[in-house]
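FAD-binding oxidoreductase, pasting as requested.
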Amino acid sequence: MTASPSPTLARHDLIARFTEIVGPTGILTDAADTAPFCTDWRDLYHGRALAVLRPADTEALSRIVRLCAEHDVPMVPQGGNTSMVGGATPDGTGREVVICLSRMNRIRNIDPHDLTMEVEAGVTLKAAQEAAWEAGFMLPLSISSEGSAQIGGVLATNAGGNNTLRYGNARELVLGLEAVMPDGGVFHGLRRLRKDNTGYALRQLLVGSEGTLGFITTAIMQLSPQPREIVAALCAVEDADAALKLLGLLRGRDPALVQAFEFMSGTGMDLVTSLIPATSLPLEERAPAYVLVELATPRPDAELREYAEGVLGDALEAGIITDAVIAESEGQRAGLWKLREEHAEAQRRAGASVKNDVSVPVSHVPELIKRATAACTALIPGIRPAPFGHMGDGNIHFNLVQPEGMAPEAFLARSHDIMDTVAAIVKELDGSFSAEHGVGQLKPYMMPAWRGGAELAAMRHIKAALDPRNLMNPGKVLPPATQDA
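Structure tokens follow.
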């Protein structure tokens, strides 16, 4: 049986106990200090926190969780606060504590033989990438927010990113985990084994759980050999069908070379080049759509540029692409990626936008873009569809920007209409309403229709078994039981 919680301590007594654990520099209580931790990146959610706690090690976090469990205090984990679905934002009650692991920021070890990195949850993804690179290896996980997103949050949301089609999501890159469980106990799973067939893979249960089952503190990540040559090219295409043909051509020649394959609509590219400083289209003419292709190899003397020129030349001759430019330097390569990475910011500057992080089988991506564009345009005339994303793995960010002249508030009031319109098409195409952003507090209402029945019931049983009082990131992922189908 689960032990009953002790009587809730008064706020000042809880604050005193928390301060004993983390020290005066590890706790924030003033509203002005906690405010940045109580609002999400998209400014969709605004909450209040009893306190923001910043433990420096796993032992301190374990003591915090035990204290919260003892006195029924809900906990919200937060890394770089880059969630797109409000997954790290407290509610408005002021009862929840935000637990930020930014002080747990050590890279403990890089093993050149095992090709692994042991890294704490508060290390930014960018810092982990740089440390791996300096050691002669590559951490292949790459996302737009990598400069601020932290390893703990990256794993808790099973982040995807630009290189998924070659290396997989975060889940595929994790060998071992350490985590603090809902009762304050520590799961010691920091194993570097490729094969470990000893029961349930608890690390995989925690990866993607969005902090609802435990708080990740340290991870062992798989590294890859550092590429000796990287070639990036921006290609103009008529539509997503042509982009799919280009992907097939590249995979047919040598699938091991394809590191990224990113689709961008003409509308999205126009927003970037018109609203983001220091960006310009490196092609002679605008196109209906674009693909950013990146090839990479660890092999010496691979003559990758010559190979890329040959494949793209064949694509041009076959009418698959209408134009292309290959980066001549690392600076130009960065410039091509800037055109891709600034899509979200350009859309923000263009006005209100509704984001749909969806995935379908790769073969269905062109149909998704066509049907969702037509449906959303019929729903709100003048709406600006700006789909972009990881076409190589079927994940498209089907984002919609408000019509010019429409009030942002009026457009956002139609958010759920727009999301449901896109989601209906995604479901018909055997896709998912969340490809890599997670569920958070934005999309739990969609879970019964998409993951209902035995699947959602199993999730509830797991949550109830590990966190029976629902203290770990409450209100995220799972909808209220009254909403079950």
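Note for the archive: Residues 365-379 form the longest helix (15 residues).
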